[in-house]
Design goal:
Layout lengths: L6 H7 L8 H22 L10 E5 L5 E3 H16 L3 E6 L6 E2 L3 H4 L3 E9 L10 E9 L10 H4 L6 E9 L3 E6 L4 E7 L4 E6 L10 E3 L10 H11 L10 E2 L5 H11 L2 E4 L10 E2 H14 L3 E3 L16 E2 L1 E4 L1 H15 L1
Parallel strand pairs: 3-5, 11-12, 11-13
Antiparallel strand pairs: 1-2, 3-4, 5-6, 6-7, 7-8, 8-9, 9-10, 13-17, 14-16, 15-17
Helix pairs in contact: 2-3, 6-9
Length: 336
């Protein structure tokens, strides 16, 4: 027990890794930690309480909202507004960015973008889901309401990003641009304890994660890459293993630990891709690069993309460096 380091203790210990304001980061992550505990408690009631299923409405992207989508969104929004570090949030479940009205919030330096409950359709069948968050330093004047420009910043300007995975155990994983660190929730103590310090993804992997049910709609380069993954070439450790959960956080987390690639290309149905640049791709891209991997839209680095709208979608390829390089090569070859 003497070796346990909590999330709060670790942030203080590493305060030099966050030159902007270590105390502010600790408080901001504290609000995310609190909301994650509350959402975790509700997720653990799935099947016992009336918290699963659809609410009968769609979000701005035209996707059916689940009860827990709205619950998680409300809890994270309330927790962030209650602190003095956040002037506004943008969420996958909100049509527009939300600017907090208290003067103490308008004086805050940061905005948070989030997917409150990634993979929420899996709740009904007891499969891992998660929360994704991204933190930027605002660019609008301090003291004024947050503006869309505060949220439409390229990913390389993130000051922190992370996710919470609600699975066999609950983990919070984050980066401030100085490595990736994971904390496992101990429900008996009510704290997140350091369990994975300086996480690194293997340069090569043997897992590919993609919804192969969409194969007929994939670009030619992706079809060729999948055939490459399935070929029997023992000296290259092929065929690779296919693993797809349908929750980005869960698929990403497994590949981060074991090595692999997650792919969500453009399709005939979603010609610009399906995943959101601001809520999903940017934070995961910062994490994977800090862990030694790569993230691309097939043409360029995700963190260099300039957002043009809050709910912008992009193709997404993220994971072990050599695997991302290989899928890019197949895409470029097919474009020639």
């Amino acid at each position: 027990m003497t070796d346990i380091r909590t999330l709060g203790e670790f942030i203080v210990e590493k305060q030099n890794d966050f030159p902007h304001a270590s105390g502010e980061l600790s408080s901001l992550l504290g609000s995310i930690k609190l909301a994650a505990k509350i959402v975790n408690r509700e997720i653990n009631k799935a099947g016992l309480a009336d918290i699963t299923g659809s609410v009968g409405k769609e979000n701005v992207q035209g996707e059916e909202q689940q009860k827990l989508d709205l619950y998680a969104n409300d809890k994270f929004k309330a927790a962030l507004e209650a602190r003095d570090q956040v002037c506004g949030i943008a969420s996958e479940e909100e049509d527009q960015a939300v600017s907090f009205n208290r003067q103490v919030n308008r004086d805050a330096k940061y905005v948070v973008l989030m997917d409150p409950l990634d993979g929420s359709s899996n709740i009904d069948v007891n499969v891992s889901v998660g929360t994704i968050f991204s933190i930027y330093r605002r660019i609008s004047p301090v003291g004024s309401p947050a503006t869309d420009a505060d949220f439409l910043q390229p990913g390389h300007l993130q000051v922190a990003a992370g996710y919470v995975i609600y699975g066999s155990s609950t983990m919070l994983v984050y980066t401030t641009g100085n490595g990736v660190h994971g904390f496992t929730y101990d429900p008996s103590l009510g704290v997140f304890c350091l369990s994975h310090e300086n996480m690194q993804i293997p340069e090569d992997g043997h897992i590919y994660s993609i919804n192969e049910g969409n194969y007929i709609r994939f670009p030619l380069g992706i079809k060729k890459y999948l055939k490459y993954c399935q070929e029997c070439v023992p000296q290259d450790n092929r065929p690779y293993t296919s693993r797809y959960i349908g929750s980005l956080v869960a698929d990403f987390h497994r590949n981060l630990l074991k090595g692999g690639i997650y792919l969500y290309p453009s399709t005939a149905t979603y010609p610009n891709g399906k995943l959101r640049l601001l809520y999903e791709c940017n934070p995961m891209a910062l994490l994977i690069e800090q862990a030694g991997g790569r993230a691309t839209d097939g043409q360029q680095r995700i963190l260099d993309l300039i957002p043009t709208e809050l709910h912008q979608r992009v193709p997404f390829f993220v994971g072990s460096t050599n695997m991302v390089n290989k899928v890019e090569a197949f895409l470029h070859e097919s474009d020639e």
